[in-house]
Design brief:
The complex is a heterodimer. Chain A contains 8 helices and 8 strands, in the order H-E-E-E-H-E-E-H-E-H-H-E-H-E-H-H. Chain A is an alpha/beta fold. In chain A, helix 7 runs antiparallel to helix 8. Chain B starts with a helix and ends with a helix. Classes of the chains: A alpha/beta, B mainly alpha. At the A-B interface, strand 4 of A face helix 7, helix 13, helix 16 and helix 17 of B.
């Protein structure tokens, strides 16, 4: 190779990609559509399904190229209308920073990794950020079937983004895996003045579909870590649950840990 | 008032001449910008630029047209000097002719009735288009956001079957930076989306999906080891190259390199995109093959668009015409046809 220098040499922004993650076949059949009751989705076979989808086997820690060890890896996708804050939520979680006015519209699909410690187990989340504009869905929904978890976002200051949740949920039911972990997030709750979607509206919709729900703010950081941690816990428990271990209750965990929009702002 | 205006200009000039922070197009350089490599490159590139400027001045003197000829093609491949870029793009793309045949059309679009949903979608991307470019900041004077908004709204109403697709904001933004003229940017955008590129941006994005498949086929023919790697790991091309096509390498490759690619794109058409993509992949074949898993492969595809190989735009542009070997338009058209049929059958 005639490269004078690896583009990585600058190092500062080298991403933390991993050693062992997925290699799912593109020919895998699409999962059949399923009823909205997510909770009803059986736990049985989740482990096998996870293994089939390229989750790194537990027990033998893997080393990511950034030198970070992890035990299990999962794919998480961020979906929702354009401008609801998917990229900002991801950056807040990944780097603990808010991209005030310095981010660009996501075109196509992109990903970032983060390793979390969940009850002593290193869980690597490979988080896919997608373009929200409707026409890109035909490009991005091909990845739904590989995702172990989906974070579905709307913007509490944008009624249309909430009204579109039905369409997103239908799309997810059509293309995602049956046992995908799904969570509904109402983002931008720091914008109290501009809020047009009530918390109760989000709760009602979530209940209807049997998915956990929380309100978040990528700007203040409210519930951002919780959203990803809850997902990581659920996925880790599914993949590594011991026979006598009680089932992890995602809904209860979220209900217990979630913070209200009022309590985190100064 | 005059003094104020002068002062404003001076301030703007001072801001823009701060070479260590902002490039010639108004883009802030990232914190980790490699000045040493860049300056090394630029000192030799400056000689090229000077030589090209003299040649182009001669070519354009007296004669107002830029005829299709082997000489012009060669000149364009070697780079259009920035001071002539807008003019040459306008002429070779046919945008100039369309603009002259439709006087007042752009203005009429702006004054006409607007589709609220389209306008809303465009507004969502206003603050998300080049926040790293000082001329697109709200505080800039003039702020190019207004021009960007106008061009996109006008285009969305002109080409209703496309409307607005994310990615067009970046393309229109570059056109505005180069032409410094809304109407010309509009007609150049029309040349690109309406004539030069297949239907990348229409709601079905069939042209985009087709060309991604075509690239996959071309890689299979020209860099089979990479095609095999992608297949083994079940990675769809769209995952790593969709932005290359949709943004025409904006924000993927360095600005100067993108503009050199666009010089050829306006003159020679969409196959240039394949030449660039194939060159990037072929050149870094061994590097990409080091990856042993899905995320690492995705990472490699990000890394091959950075570094001296792509910064040295003059050498890079020579390579795109030699490295991938022969690439006949007939071959591409044929692959497009079969790929399109395959995609339609899959629906």
């Amino acid at each position: 190779m005639s490269r004078k220098k690896s583009p990585r040499a600058k190092g500062a922004s080298a991403s933390s990609s991993s050693a062992a993650a997925s290699s799912s076949a593109p020919s895998a059949a699409l999962p059949a559509a399923q009823p909205p009751q997510r909770q009803a989705a059986g736990h049985a076979g989740a482990e096998a399904a996870a293994a089939a989808n390229g989750v790194a086997p537990p027990g033998r820690p893997s080393l990511s190229s950034s030198g970070e060890f992890y035990d299990v890896a999962f794919k998480v996708m961020l979906v929702g209308d354009s401008g609801v804050g998917k990229t900002c939520l991801l950056v807040r979680f990944k780097d603990g920073a808010f991209l005030a006015g310095s981010f660009i519209s996501t075109v196509g699909i992109d990903f970032r990794n983060k390793v979390l410690n969940v009850d002593g187990v290193k869980v690597k989340l490979q988080i896919w950020d997608t373009a929200g504009q409707e026409r890109f869905r035909s490009v991005t929904h091909a990845y739904y079937r590989d995702a172990h978890a989906l974070l579905l976002l709307y913007d509490v200051t944008n009624r249309a983004s909430f009204d579109n949740m039905q369409a997103w949920l239908t799309e997810i039911q059509e293309y995602a895996k049956q046992d995908v972990v799904l969570m509904l997030l109402g983002n931008k709750v720091d914008s109290t003045q501009e809020r047009v979607v009530k918390r109760e509206d989000g709760e009602k919709l979530a209940k209807e579909y049997g998915v956990p729900f929380m309100e978040t703010s990528a700007k203040s950081g409210l519930n951002v870590d919780l959203a990803f941690t809850a997902i990581a816990k659920e996925l880790k428990h599914r993949a590594m649950k011991l026979p006598n271990e009680p089932r992890f209750k995602l809904h209860d965990y979220v209900k217990k840990e979630v913070k209200g929009a009022g309590c985190c702002r100064s | 008032m005059e003094g104020e205006e002068e002062e404003r200009r001076a301030r703007q000039a001072a801001r823009e001449s701060d070479v260590h922070r902002v490039d010639a197009y108004g883009f802030e350089r990232p914190a980790d910008f490699d000045y040493t490599t860049y300056e090394e490159f630029f000192s030799t590139y400056l000689v090229v630029l000077t030589r090209r400027a003299i040649k182009w001045s001669k070519l354009l003197k007296g004669n107002s047209g830029v005829p299709k000829s082997l000489k012009v093609k060669r000149y364009i491949r070697k780079g259009i000097p920035n001071e002539h870029r807008a003019l040459v793009w306008m002429i070779v793309s046919g945008a100039q002719a369309h603009m002259e045949q439709n006087p007042g059309y752009y203005q009429k679009l702006l004054e006409g009735e607007k589709n609220d949903k389209l306008v809303e979608t465009i507004k969502t991307d206003m603050n998300r288009t080049f926040p790293d470019n000082i001329r697109f900041r709200k505080t800039a004077d003039p702020c190019l956001q207004k021009a960007l908004y106008n061009v996109l709204v006008a285009y969305g109403h002109h080409n209703k079957s496309v409307g607005y697709c994310q990615g067009m904001n970046f393309i229109a933004g570059y056109l505005i930076l180069i032409t410094k003229n809304e109407e010309e940017s509009f007609w150049l955008l029309d040349a690109l989306i309406g004539r030069i590129l297949p239907d990348y941006y229409s709601p079905e994005m069939l042209g985009l999906k087709t060309d991604q498949e075509v690239l996959g086929e071309l890689v299979r023919m020209k860099v089979p080891a990479i095609a095999e790697l992608m297949e083994r790991h079940g990675i769809m091309w769209t995952l790593v190259v969709s932005r290359w096509f949709i943004c025409l390498f904006i924000d993927i490759l360095p600005v100067e390199t993108v503009l050199r690619i666009w010089d050829c794109l306006f003159y020679e058409g969409s196959k240039i995109i394949f030449r660039v993509a194939l060159t990037l992949i072929k050149q870094h074949q061994a590097f990409i093959l080091e990856a042993t898993n899905f995320p690492d492969i995705c990472d490699k595809f990000k890394q091959i668009t950075k570094g001296p190989f792509v910064t040295e735009c003059h050498t890079f542009m020579q390579k795109i015409f030699t490295d991938p070997g022969s690439l006949k338009m007939a071959t591409i058209e044929k692959l497009r046809e079969t790929s399109r049929e395959k995609l339609i059958a899959q629906r």
